[in-house]
Amino acid sequence: MIEGLLRLTQVPQLGAQRIAKLLEKIDLGELLHYDSNQLRQMGWNEKQIQRWQHPKGDWIAQALRWAEQPDCHILSLFDDDYPFLLKQISTAPPLLFVQGSVASLSLPQIAMVGSRDFSAYGKHWASYLAEALVSHQLAVTSGLAIGIDGFCHEQVVQSGGVTIAVLGSGLAQIYPTRHKRLATQIIERGGALVSEFLPQQPPIAENFPRRNRIISGLSLGTLVIEATINSGSLITARYALEQGREVFALPNGIHHPQSAGCHKLIKQGALLVDSIEDILDAIAFQHQPRIHTPQPTTQPMLFETSNRPIQAVQKKAHFAPSIQNLTACQQQIMAEIGLNPITIDDLAKATDLNVEALLVELLTLELLALVKSVSGGYVLGEG
Questions:
Q1: pLDDT for position 128
Q2: CA neighbours within 13 Å on the CB side: how many for 313?
Q3: Dist. CA 120–CA 151, nearest whole Å
Q4: Do the strands 139-142 and 271-272 form a parallel or antiparallel pair, or are they unpaired?
Q5: Contact 246, 277 (CB under 8 A)
């Protein structure tokens, strides 16, 4: 199963959602025996057929060898241990590479994200809120990045809590390198490192916005501590909104450079946070802590079930339901994209969207395989 999915993820122009839809209709074991004509009847082009029939075996072998190491795991959408909340998003990764505790991915968790350059104010509130989340038996999820992300991981580790780091590189290529020791501590404390990328994948700029959907997808809500108006943290918050998750933002002085992003989110409907109770009240219907005192290195799951690993909520299906209708904004963008490339600037003018918001929407559409980036701009994909 894992080897077949590693092979399938190599096929070009198959986004996560298209793979999920494909596997809802066709058993992977059957697909492995399809000939070229059958693949063409499915709508695959020659390039896709060639890659499927002649995959890069060394990539697959390296990934399988990596998973043979202690505490290294590869989860698929078929696995019971695949985190339920993440499975509910339309672009859930077909495969997750996990180092550390797989069970920690199903803990009730809040994402904490923010700017690379944070102020003393941001540091104070990040420390307070991270420790408060741990004391209320919640895990903290972030991106291991320099700045607020890394600081929040550190505070949780120091508080004896569980934290989950989602990387924009393979797990054999920890980035940033200065956080290698922190990554080890996260695992030692019962947390996990997570990536959708092959273990040897180096950090590439385009990977980091993509991984943000996993940060928000694993979490009940996303808390933005500090963010400029162009901060990548706003991408995570945007994903959280699209996934139907809570978005929280810490207010600051109106002239502070790190406040603009958070205040923008608050204007758009994010919940202003000035105490831990604001977060707890918002997720109260989902968060049901155990009555008894947990062990120091464990935290409770949501909605416990009897004699099997506990997920955040009860499972209903193997895959997220297919989203048939795009948002109005995404439909507007799709109306302007055709077979001839259109530049980002021309697209921004045609849709009356700023470039920042447009890039977020385009990234989502690319993950759905509805558009693709080519030389000269964007064209229709094959979703």
A1: 95
A2: 13
A3: 12
A4: unpaired
A5: no
